[in-house]
Amino acid sequence: MESNLWGTRRQRHHQRVTIPDELVRQLRSAQRVVVVTGAGVSAESGVPTFRDAQTGLWAKFKPEELATPEGFQANPRLVWEWYAWRRKMVAAARPNSAHFALREMEKLFPEFHLITQNVDGLHQRAGSSNVIELHGNITRTKCFNEGTIITTSQDSDEVPPRCPQCGGVLRPDVVWFGEVLPESALEKAAEVSANCDVFFSIGTSAVVYPAAALSADALRAGKTVVEINPEPTPLTALAHFVVSGAAGVVVPEIVNRVRSFVS
């Protein structure tokens, strides 16, 4: 079944990527593997990046008007409606071959941690478990005042709806500009990155901090660092292995090589 999922038109129409044998050998003996994914993985499912989403009707608004606590306080209805529009795009998207391959990669190692900067929940929809979400999840809602996650649906016509506990307005459970990342998620991500055997940076620009610091944690700890990205990034010159290409092509090939490799 997975081979059919991976056999996408994108993959069939691209030249086969070359995975270094030494990387495969290291993965075959690895006990602890960490993967960090960025917007490039979601983009292959048609999910636009934050700035790509600021088109059409939304092009006239600045990021600080749509994705900051101050912007929300100034115009909560505008921000809520923009995120409602983005939620519809995310709901229509489907996990791609990279998401499914990462689900399979999880089964290959005694310890596997998937850290994502993406907020679309596509990793979970593909079947990955214990995903560490650094920037939250757009499908969840929380109280602006208390930060409490609200799981019950709100039938009110008010926009944004109100928190059933305190009456405050609800907001998307995502990290906005000027906000700190969830402390527990960041601490766990830093811990596993410094203690892994192999660290993957996949589809990320490696410039958004503090997430970009995780590869530095792995490098300082002497771990093997692998970058998968179509374009060079600040991490490219530092990584031990660099595989240039789309995640949806490269990651399934790595999983297949690890499963079938004979030294």
Would you write up a description of this structure?
The chain has two domains: 1-46 and 95-135 and 181-263, Rossmann fold (3-Layer(aba) Sandwich), CATH 3.40.50.1220; 48-92 and 139-174, 2-Layer Sandwich (SIR2/SIRT2 'Small Domain'). 37% of the residues lie in helices and 17% in strands. The chain contains twelve helices and nine strands. It has helices at residues 2-6, 9-12, 21-29, 39-43, 63-66, 69-74, 76-92, 97-105, 122-126, 183-194, 213-220, 247-260; strands at 32-37, 111-116, 131-133, 136-143, 149-150, 170-174, 198-202, 224-229, 241-244. The strands form two sheets. A six-stranded parallel sheet has the order 3-2-1-7-8-9. Strands 5-4-6 form a three-stranded antiparallel sheet.
The count of β-strands is 9
Strand content: 15-25%
Low-pLDDT runs: 1-5, 7-13
Give the domain tally.
2
Given helix and strand content, the structural type is: alpha/beta
What order do the helices and strands follow?
HHHEHHHHHEHEEEEHEHEEH
Helical content class:
25-40%
CATH homologous superfamily name of the largest domain?
A: TPP-binding domain
CATH class of the largest domain: Alpha Beta
Calculate the mean pLDDT score and round it.
89
CATH topology of the largest domain: Rossmann fold
